[in-house]
Amino acid sequence: MLKYLCVAAAALTLGACETTSSRPYAPSTANILAFQAALKETDSKVQVAPFSLASGVSEKLTCRALGALEVAPGKSAREFVESAMRDELFAAGVYDAAKGVAINGELTQLDFNSMGTGSWDISLKLSSTALPEGYEVGTHYTFKTSYSAIKACQNVIDAFTPAVQELIGKAVADPSFKKLAGSQ
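^ thats the sequence. predicted structure below, dont judge the formating
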């Protein structure tokens, strides 16, 4: 009997930590139009270099007592933001992997809050050979959370994509974007 109780206790302990997963990124129509508008006059093309993490920024995100958050299927948060930028540029028809100015990105902030009013705080520094000093954009994206840890942590994950869309929207809306892309 003790053997069965130990097995049951072990199963409950192992099952207590859950991984909450996100959905794949979907490009934003508003961002696509903004990229097209920013680069149409010069017919500039860009590419995306591998993004990096600033010192002190961690991608090992955990939510309440549930354990690890997987912000993107099979990708780190850094890879997700890099891929999202590439997807937006490709959908806008301004991405060219072979030529064009390479945009570098560095995640300088990656934090969330799952208590009270939920929020994502994400900041990104962008630079290129055309604008080596670059510029930084950030977003404070709020969303509803929940008392339940499972629901609250899923809300955190569900809010990641729109937070990244908003971040990319701010990047292209910045007056420095045209110079970053080599179109000024």
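Confidence is low (pLDDT under 50) at residues 4-19.
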